[in-house]
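re: that chain from earlier
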Amino acid sequence: MAKRGPYEKGEAKRSEILHAALEIFAAEGYRGTSLRKVAAKSNLSLPGLMHYFESKEDLLTQVLRMRDETARVRQVQRDDPKSYREIIRESAKTPGLVELFVSMAAAASDPAHPAHTHFAERYPVLRERVADFVRAQAGEGRISTLVPPERLAVLFIAVADGIQMQWLIDRSTDMEQPIEDLMRILDPRQEPDEA
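^ sequence. v structure.
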């Protein structure tokens, strides 16, 4: 029982660090943020900050996990077709996190990178959730059933991830419109000349 107190304090401090990092990266960007700034906001020295994480990449991976978890909580609260577009809209307000996501996703292709496991676990779960969304929409007649939900899920994620990359390069790119367009293309209720 005596060991529980320090463990809980350590977890609380780790959570505080992750919240600080999430806030700073969202506001200032991935490349523009130093870990010293995260340490200062957490009332720690840089070595003190790194005591809670295996490496800078581990910290960044944990920030992405937290970002995904907060998005997942918001997603559960929204079950209409606009919810996926709303998450993309929220991403446009936090360019630093979009930059972090895209950078870490590219680095995670290396199986030795700390983010590899995160992304390897993330995509199957995300594909299943999107496929469930597609099934529900198809059941209501809002999405065509010509392509199986599992394949449409891959397409939706590819569009969402790809548009984030384009947006990082050209901020005038509308990140919501491709999702809207994809939903419209897949809507069996529209008239042929509406497309």
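The CA atoms of residues 39 and 83 lie 34 Å apart.
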